[in-house]
Design brief:
Pfam families: Pentapeptide_3. This protein is an alpha/beta fold and 557 residues long. Helix content is 30%, strand content 25%. The longest helix is centred in the C-terminal third of the chain and has 28 residues.
């Protein structure tokens, strides 16, 4: 038995995926061992109890065991070799005697279909070379298959476990069916291995149940199963597809560090209490569509290598994806979300986030984290803007709104509305980028200053002491430049303009003053540059007014 257990662990640790071949090989090995043991016992002619150190077991006929059960006598065997099939399906009355056949080998099938057991049944460490059929059986007391090896079909459909169901370390080599089974008390499958298909559909687990460190090597079904108390799959491995579709979890559900090597289907499942998938690994699709999470749900540090589908799901309490890795898409289409945390989550370059028609109250995800992955949907973008405003994440709200307007503008046909949007984009970043207005203001000042300087369109007024005759002559030449001058001959007055090119810095100074609708005392435009200065003043008032409006709006928000 120790050797067999070691082999089981080695197979699992090696990540064996072709379980059908493994089952066939293991069946041949066991049959060979059983045949050798039987021949050795017959040759020796001994009928003694099993000596573990010598590896010799006493042979017991199945008829002897069934006779004791019919007589109501206790059945107590250890380290025996049972030859023949044990068939109690036609016993016609409840089995009241306790049964204990441990660390033994039953070289045949066990048929207890429909049998009612009043006393405990202990088959720990026993090897079953044939089918185990317990369809519709009822166990009023504790049942133990701990460490047992069921080499062929294990049928527990409609079985009722009234006491503790102990399947710790059990190896199910053939297909297992526990559909519609009922576990009234604690059920433990810790360390078990299901080498073939396992069916727990419509099973009911009334008390705490443990599937911790279990290996499911073939497809597994928990569809429509109901877990009324704590259920734990801690560190279990599902090597092929598993389905929890339409299952109900009334107590806490623990999927910490569970590995799903193939598709994990939780479509339509209902989690009435807290559930955690922390550090779980989903190698293929994780389907939670139409699922309902009524308690806290934790996916922190989980790894989604493919799509994580939560379409039409209801997440009615806090949902946590902190430090979660998404290598595939995150689909939240039409979902209802109360509060979702995506702190320090990471997305691959190709990952997409779908929030189409999603309704969420609180989304704790920085815009910088999701902006490159969010699939455009106008309602989703506006909902995110509102979400960021409610949390007073102003920069995130502004950046989200800006990207929303950019994408919306790019999809519009050319027309008046799009032209207005383009102006709004360039001038103020749709009202959320005052830096754009500052940039254009500085650019206009520099541009017009350069135009004035290159075209020599600015004149400088010179201050000189001239006679009245010279002053009158200058005023006749340029009456606008000398309007309001004094008639005193001895005063210093602006009486002469020079046509030399003014310094570039003075052109910038004049441009800045014109931009703010102010006229410098010593500089004035000439010719066409009077109109250029007027245009600059109009643009200046527009940009300055726009800056005040945008800044005020941001401060109010």
């Amino acid at each position: 038995m120790k050797l067999q257990t070691a082999l089981d662990k080695a197979y699992i640790q090696a990540g064996c995926r072709n379980s059908r071949s493994v089952v066939q090989i293991r069946t041949v090995v066991w049959c060979s061992l059983l045949l050798c043991l039987l021949m050795a016992s017959m040759a020796s002619g001994q009928d003694v109890g099993c000596n573990v150190s010598d590896g010799v077991c006493r042979i017991v006929s199945a008829a002897e065991i069934m006779g004791k059960i019919r007589a109501g006598e206790p059945v107590m065997y250890e380290n025996v070799f049972v030859s023949g099939d044990i068939n109690l399906s036609r016993i016609g009355k409840p089995v009241v005697s306790p049964i204990k056949i441990v660390n033994s080998t039953i070289n045949g099938s066990l048929n207890i279909n429909g049998v009612e057991f009043m006393g405990p049944l202990n088959l720990s460490g026993t090897v079953f070379s044939g089918d185990v059929a317990a369809r519709g059986a009822s166990f009023g007391s504790d049942v133990s298959f701990a460490g047992a090896h069921l080499l062929r079909v294990a049928e527990f459909t409609l079985t009722k476990f009234g006491g503790v169901a102990n399947f710790v370390g059990t190896n199910f080599h053939g297909p297992v069916s526990m559909g519609y089974a009922q576990f009234s008390k604690v059920g433990s499958f810790e360390g078990a291995a299901f080498w073939n298909c396992a069916d727990f559909s419509n099973a009911q687990f009334m008390d705490d149940t443990s599937f911790e460190r279990v290996h499911f090597l073939r497809s597994t079904s928990f569809e429509f199963a109901r877990f009324y108390q704590l259920i734990s799959f801690w560190r279990s491995v599902f090597h092929e597809e598993v389905s929890f579709a339409n299952s109900e979890f009334s107590g806490t559900a623990n999927f910490i560090s569970v590995s799903f090597d193939e598709n994990a289907i939780f479509m339509g499942s209902r989690f009435s209490h807290d559930v955690t998938f922390s550090a779980a690994q989903f190698s293929k699709s994780a389907v939670f569509g139409l699922a309902a999470f009524q308690g806290f749900s934790d996916f922190s540090s989980a790894l989604f290598k493919s799509v994580a589908f939560f379409g039409l799901a209801k997440l009615e309490d806090n949902t946590r994806f902190a430090n979660t890795t998404f290598d595939g898409d995150l689909v939240l289409t039409s979902s209802r979300i109360y509060s979702m945390q995506l702190e320090n989550a990471s997305f691959s370059d190709s990952s997409k986030i779908y929030l189409n028609e999603a309704d969420f109250t609180r989304m704790l995800a920085r815009w910088s984290l999701i902006k490159d992955h969010l699939v455009y949907d106008s309602a989703a973008y506006l909902a995110l803007v509102k979400n960021y405003k409610n949390m007073e994440w102003r920069d995130d709200a502004n950046d989200c709104y800006y990207q929303y307007r950019r994408i919306s503008q790019s999809s519009e046909p050319w027309g008046l509305e799009k032209m207005i949007d383009v102006i709004s984009w360039l001038s103020c970043g749709y009202g959320v980028k005052p830096s754009y207005t500052i940039f254009w203001s500085m650019f206009m000042i520099l541009l017009f200053g350069l135009v004035y300087w290159i075209g020599n369109g600015i004149r400088e007024i010179a201050w000189e002491n001239l006679s009245d005759e010279e002053v009158d002559g200058e005023q006749e030449k340029n009456p606008e430049a000398h309007e309001g001058d004094s008639d005193s001959v001895s005063e210093s007055r602006p009486v002469r303009s020079t046509e030399r090119r003014i310094p570039f810095s003075d052109s910038i100074f004049f441009s800045a003053m014109s931009f703010t609708a102010q006229s410098p005392a010593s500089l004035y435009p000439v010719g066409i540059y009077k109109h250029v200065s007027m245009i600059e003043g109009i643009l200046g008032w527009f940009l300055l007014g726009l800056f005040v409006v945008v800044l005020s709006g941001m401060l109010i928000r």
